[in-house]
Specification:
The structure holds 2 protein chains of 2 kinds. Helix content of chain A is about 35%, strand content about 30%. Chain A is an alpha+beta fold. In chain A, a hairpin with a 4-residue loop joins strand 7 and strand 8. The longest helix of chain A has 18 residues, at about 5-25. Chain B has 4 domains: about 5-80, Arc Repressor Mutant, subunit A; about 90-135, no CATH class; about 140-220, Roll (SH3 type barrels), CATH 2.30.30; about 235-310, Alpha-Beta Plaits. Chain B has helices at about 5-20, 30-35, 40-60, 75-80, 90-100, 110-120, 140-150, 240-250, 275-285, 295-309; strands at about 25, 65, 70-75, 100-105, 135, 155-160, 160-175, 175-185, 190-195, 200-205, 235-240, 255-260, 265-270, 290. In chain B, the strands form 4 sheets. Chain B has a 5-stranded antiparallel beta sheet. In chain B, strands 12-13-11-14 form a 4-stranded antiparallel beta sheet. Chain B has a 3-stranded antiparallel beta sheet with strand order 1-3-2. In chain B, helix 5 packs antiparallel against helix 6 (about 110-120). The chains are: A alpha+beta, B alpha+beta.
């Protein structure tokens, strides 16, 4: 989606661009445009405007000097803007959390450039390095995770011993590991499943063992999104009414539609990839969810599973 | 030709320069005398001025508003300016790569703008190679909580329907959720709050730097959900079959009481949140059975009956 550039957007760019150019005593137009994500025309009109900015009484010594000349950008007398604006709390958190997340991945150098950058950034945003925020990307056997990452990077097919949560079954699969990623606090593997003959998603903490083979694969240009669930055409949809205590479902799972039924109750249209997954969800939600609509075998799956489990407790 | 947007931008730059240039706080009227391009009509000028101040504050400019009879405004340079972090090229590239690899989407948290400020952006587009790619959940309260953690400023929030005053110690992201670890003043005890369950706004209370964080962070790793509660309600025994035993144990918060010949286990688990324990036990379907206490078994039966009906 292309959003129209606003005056705010242009000001944010200027407040970062001006000190950067001024500190260097000028810079190439191409480089400035590449670094600050604008076109030469946009840069030109922002500089023309900056040229008339300054403070009262707007005599030459109280104005910014800014101009384009022979492919170079020149900015001087911009002393009010000699340093960039400090980071917002959200930007500070994004930087620190992101760096901490990567540093939590086994195999990352704990004293490498990222760790050193994190320490400097923490000081610049007024945080104490090493404190304030912890990020873990997911539980996973570090050996399995490392094997999958290496196989993915080296484009080698892997054999997996896998427990499928959705179908509640153990299987051995042959998979081309396209992507290894973390989402929602779990590690996932996305790749071509040779038994299913189509792309599949695997949770790394459900992989009991992974063995790289000698067979190579070629990663497709678009290996698909790094999301835990990607809708396939033909996935059935169930309509669920949720009590207030189960309203989190609407935010936690990708739903097609949410209707407010009043008093905190919601009606959601939920696409279902695996019948077993829905049965588990429905048993967990129990009386907090009612299936209003959906294919009969799905609509009944919570009831059937609950009745089966009850027998164990008799 | 100058557009409306150009005029607005010029006014914002001039206003910010005037606020940074002022040695004393200035009133709106004083500022409008030295910043051109405000409408002549006083009502329109007043409206435009407050929108401008909001726009500056919205992008993080620390506009200090003096609450006198006539409000005054100023921006202190030392609060405005980002100290130079002194990043080497290699360190800057590592940050760019981290932001290209891990995603955390927050309001006013644009990573691109953060990198403009810190490193002047990147001369070449940096993209993540195949490798760990991760998405962290965003939440509206995170920025306020982070600011309070950093500033060591107490906060007021509502949780489980009760107002609480908390010394915020640390944020952590685990199992796909953000948690705030802190000290609950009224309960005189350390507590863990799930950020997406915090009700209503988070309000700072009192001055910054008003408490010390504990030096040990042994509680940094949040316990599993059934341990999130004010007190332990009972200790449960849960049987889990061989296939799911490792997964169940990896959740933490349990000890293996018995390892049976078939590879199944009996786990002993203190439970502070019975609802969360029931959910966990049911997640394991036929692979688990709650053995004790009777009240936990009865709750499972009640729940399954209500589901099977």
């Amino acid at each position: 989606m292309i959003r129209r550039t606003t005056a705010d957007d242009r000001l944010r760019r200027l407040l970062a661009l001006v000190p950067w150019v001024a500190a260097r005593g000028g810079a190439d137009v191409d480089e400035v445009c590449a670094r600050f994500g604008c076109t030469e025309n946009e840069l030109q009109s922002d500089l023309e405007l900056l040229f008339v900015c300054g403070v009262h009484p707007f005599t030459p010594d109280a104005l910014v000097e800014a101009w384009l000349d022979d492919g170079r950008v020149h900015i001087s007398y911009a002393d009010w803007f000699r340093r960039p604006l400090r980071l917002t709390p959200a930007q500070g958190l994004v930087l620190v959390a992101t760096a901490r997340a990567l540093l939590s991945v086994p195999g990352t150098d704990p004293a490498g450039p990222l760790a050193r950058a994190l320490e400097k950034v923490a000081l610049a945003v007024g945080a104490e390095p090493g404190e304030g925020v912890e990020v873990e990307l997911g539980e996973a056997d570090s050996g399995v995770l490392a094997e999958l990452q290496a196989a993915s990077a080296g484009e080698r097919r892997v054999e997996l011993d896998y427990y499928s949560f959705g179908s509640d079954r153990f299987t051995t699969r042959l998979v081309d590991p396209w992507l290894v990623f973390s989402s929602g606090g779990s590690w996932y593997l996305r790749g071509h499943d040779h038994h299913a003959g189509e792309p599949r998603m695997f949770r790394v903490d459900r992989v009991q063992a992974a063995r790289a083979t000698d067979e190579r694969f070629e990663r497709p240009a678009d290996p698909g999104p790094t999301e835990a669930y990607t809708r396939r055409p033909g996935d059935p949809v169930v309509v669920l009414d949720l009590e207030p205590a189960a309203a989190w479902v609407a935010g936690h799972h990708p739903v097609d539609d949410v209707e407010d039924l009043g008093n905190g109750r919601l009606r959601v249209h939920l696409p279902v990839s695996e019948p077993g997954w829905l049965a588990r969800l429905l048993v967990g939600l129990g009386p907090l969810a009612t299936v209003v609509e959906g294919p009969p075998e799905l609509a009944e799956s919570g009831r059937v599973t609950a009745a089966r489990l009850l027998r164990r407790y008799r | 030709m100058a557009t409306d947007q150009d005029r607005k931008l010029e006014r914002l730059v001039d206003l910010l320069a005037a606020l940074l240039d002022a040695s004393q706080p200035k009133s709106r009227v004083e500022l409008q005398r030295v910043v051109p391009l405000y409408p002549e009509d006083d009502v329109a000028a007043r409206r435009a001025f407050s929108r401008d101040v909001e726009a500056l504050a919205g992008m993080g400019v620390p506009v200090e508003v003096g609450e006198g009879q006539v409000p005054t405004y100023r921006v202190r340079r030392e609060e405005y300016e980002l100290p130079d972090p002194g990043l080497s090229e290699e360190e800057a590239a590592a940050l760019h790569l981290a932001l290209a690899t891990v995603e955390l989407d927050l309001p006013e948290g644009s990573p691109a703008e953060a990198l403009w400020k810190l490193t002047g952006g990147a001369a070449e587009r940096i993209t993540a190679p195949v490798g760990p790619t991760a998405t962290l959940p965003g939440h509206e309260h995170l920025s306020a909580l982070w600011a309070a953690v950093n500033g060591r400023q107490r906060i007021r929030l509502a949780y489980r329907g009760e107002p609480r005053e908390v010394q915020p110690w640390q944020l952590s992201c685990q199992r796909g959720h953000w948690y705030l670890q802190g000290f609950d003043a009224a309960r005189e005890a350390a507590r863990l709050y799930r950020v997406d369950r915090i009700e209503g706004p988070v309000e700072p209370v009192g001055p910054v730097g008003s408490f010390e964080r504990p030096t040990t962070t042994d509680t940094a790793s949040p316990p599993p959900p059934w341990l999130l509660g004010d007190e332990v309600r009972y200790v449960a025994r849960l049987w889990v079959d061989a296939g799911q035993a490792d997964f169940a144990r990896a959740q933490g918060g349990c000890e293996v009481e018995e390892l049976r010949a078939d590879g199944s286990v009996v786990l002993v688990m203190p439970v502070a949140n019975p609802d969360a324990f029931r959910s966990f036990a049911l997640t394991l379907l036929d692979h688990a059975e709650v053995l004790e206490p009777p009240e936990a078994r009865a709750e499972i039966v009640r729940w399954l009956k209500a589901t099977a009906r």
